[in-house]
Amino acid sequence: QITLKESGPTLVKPTQTLTLTCSFSGFSLSARGVGVGWIRQPAGKALEWLALIYWDEDKRYSPSLKSRLTITKDTSKNQVVLTMTNMDPVDTATYYCARRIAVAGIPSGFDIWGEGTMISVSS
Amino acid sequence: DIQMTQSPSTLSASVGDRVTITCRASQSIRSWLAWYQQKPGKAPKLLIYKASSLESGVPSRFSGSGSGTEFTLTISSLQPDDFATYFCQQYNSSFYTFGQGTKLEI
After folding, report:
1. How many CB atoms lie within 10 A of CB A13?
2. B40 pLDDT exceeds 80?
3. I want to staple B76 with a disulfide (CB 3.0 to 4.6 A). Which of A104, A123, B37, B61 is the partner?
């Protein structure tokens, strides 16, 4: 069974740095074509893609947030970590991690998602 | 950046109806488009990838079509479980982008 689970603080203060961990099982992030990404969603609003890390250490970031984001992976621990600096109340949202694979070399979307973690930014 | 525009934002329909949701890209994304279904309080669920490939386990009443800049998601006969919000997502470029969503309601 493939699962992903997000963990981190539920409340952060403005200007603080948010660190989120995605712990996964049932697949390997060292397998060709595999990636793990982060997506967020403010309540009642659209999904926003944040970052993605691939099996080969390639990293991609949302252009609008690139200066604030860092994504890393620990293959031995089956974890992906996202840090977001200088948090602001507008960053209040549910944060999801999700797997991206390539089926027969054909990239899919995000096929398996975590349940999400709600992050509030407030003083 | 590639922008994704969905229409309509809200769609009212009834059980048994055939419905179509459109997603337009600001530039060609070839066939690198996915569709997701999201229910309140839940994570999105992948329905379609590469514009028209049905994800394993997804009912065949869901279908996707299109290429380049215009794409559609069609539900052939709405079931009660299909009332949800639907998002498209491009993955042609190195940067993924979601549409703003279409809420399908009774």
Report:
1. 10
2. yes
3. B61
